């Protein structure tokens, strides 16, 4: 199946040019601006959906979508089963990459960093706030392990919903959160003329200095640079 002709013109986003002089110089604040715009766009159903890439200690990668459940100076949060494939890969290799994509805005954000487990109290609080069916779903799944049939899964869920009423579902012991501490955050804005904007925030390498030509001083210890599209 040849799908090479599949092409949609990007909406003109000149208003969204990433210009060095008008740019928010702190990538977390800039992410917040972009995220708010995505969140307030009714065409975007899950603005917090993102693709998380992990890798084994030998560098074999795997990627899956998840929902980002918070962000701030201490990183980007998500929740999952610690015993899942991603959880096992994170155990042996904390290096991750996350990509958000908001197609209607022609925007993507790429984050690279390291993941570490959040304190269990975060997961306990968040789990309590989840809808009943999501709680039962999490409790009934030994995530990423094979199972013989869907019927088997629904039987487990059914049994658990008989056992636990709303408000009583315990958090699975090994279900919890991670915070990804970013070491680089790239903002990509697609443009009609195909001269797309790419601005990457990162930290200075050892002995590197900001030259105000290719690299520029950001806020919060970050520097930034424009990448070719
Ligand atoms: C939009 C979307 C959101 C998802 N959100 C989560 C999530 O927040 N946590 C999670 O563990 N899995 C989530 N999943 C399921 C994962 O993509 C994946 O199937 C699961 O985490 C197992 O991945 P693993 O076997 O690589 O560990 C989501 C899937 C989609 C498509």
TrEMBL record:
EC number: 1.4.3.5
Alphabetized UniProt keyword annotations: Flavoprotein, FMN, Oxidoreductase, Pyridoxine biosynthesis
GO molecular function, one term: FMN binding
Pathway: Cofactor metabolism; pyridoxal 5'-phosphate salvage; pyridoxal 5'-phosphate from pyridoxine 5'-phosphate: step 1/1; Cofactor metabolism; pyridoxal 5'-phosphate salvage; pyridoxal 5'-phosphate from pyridoxamine 5'-phosphate: step 1/1
Keyword Transmembrane helix: no
Domain Pyridoxamine 5'-phosphate oxidase N-terminal: 44-151
Database matches in Gene3D superfamilies: Electron Transport, Fmn-binding Protein, Chain A
Job of this protein: Catalyzes the oxidation of either pyridoxine 5'-phosphate (PNP) or pyridoxamine 5'-phosphate (PMP) into pyridoxal 5'-phosphate (PLP).
Subunit structure: Homodimer.
Protein's UniProt name: pyridoxal 5'-phosphate synthase
Organism: Aquatica leii
């Amino acid at each position: 199946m040849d799908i090479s002709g599949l092409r949609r013109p990007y909406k003109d986003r000149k208003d969204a040019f990433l210009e060095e002089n008008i740019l928010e110089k702190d990538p977390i604040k800039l992410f917040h601006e972009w995220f708010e715009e995505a969140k307030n766009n009714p065409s975007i159903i899950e603005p917090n959906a993102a693709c998380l890439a992990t890798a084994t200690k030998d560098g074999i990668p795997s990627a899956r979508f998840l929902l980002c459940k918070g962000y701030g100076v201490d990183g980007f949060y998500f929740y999952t089963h610690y015993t899942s494939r991603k959880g096992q890969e994170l155990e042996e290799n904390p290096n991750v990459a996350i990509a958000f994509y908001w197609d209607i805005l022609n925007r993507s954000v790429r984050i690279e960093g390291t993941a570490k487990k959040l304190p269990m109290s975060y997961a306990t609080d968040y789990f309590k706030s989840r809808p009943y069916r999501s709680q039962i779903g999490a409790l009934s799944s030994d995530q990423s392990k094979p199972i013989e049939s869907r019927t088997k899964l629904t039987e487990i869920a059914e049994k658990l919903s008989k056992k636990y009423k709303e408000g009583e579902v315990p958090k699975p012991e090994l279900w919890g959160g991670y915070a990804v501490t970013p070491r680089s955050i790239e903002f990509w804005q697609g443009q009609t003329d195909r001269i797309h904007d790419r601005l990457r925030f990162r930290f200075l390498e050892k002995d590197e200095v900001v030259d105000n030509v290719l690299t520029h001083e950001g806020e919060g210890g970050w520097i930034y640079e424009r990448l070719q599209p």
